[in-house]
Design a protein that fits this description.
183 residues, globular, 10 strands, two-stranded antiparallel ribbon
Length: 183
Amino acid sequence: MLYDLLNVYAATHCGNMPGSASGVWCLPSQIMWQYGSSENTAMFVPLPAMACGTDANCVARQDGSDTCDVTHGLCYKKAAVPGSACASDGACPLDGVCSLGPRFEGGYCQTFGCAANATTGIDACPGTNSFCGQRGGPDEPISSCYEKCTSGGPACSRASAGYRCESLTTNGPLNVCLVNSGT
């Protein structure tokens, strides 16, 4: 299971794959497992030359990031939450990725490896308005964080860009903000 999860996660986040804003290839030596996580989520340590040391290093990259996690040398956007617009992984929360494609118009920050029942800690989705779920298909067996919504509730934060409350699965409850197209 761990080997399969590593292959799926690394291919999704490090390979130059369609739908990923990241164009970087990761080597096994660049992957650090966060022990204690029931889903074995991973953070990718950049090459030493790419590592940040200060917040100013991240701002200078002009990729949407504004904060440096000096422990891992990773740049991220401190205020970003699941569902935030993005053009690169740097514009997303720590350990987040910028998902692209028909369901993610204008980019969509996501984090992977959450646990649906987690409310705190490494397995919980960041922010107070997020939902941990699994779309199936290419996302299986990994759950990811989405902007949360409820049918008849407040509009999705990016409603003007075509996001609306949808179901992750066929005939499932309306609970995440996505664009109604593609898969």
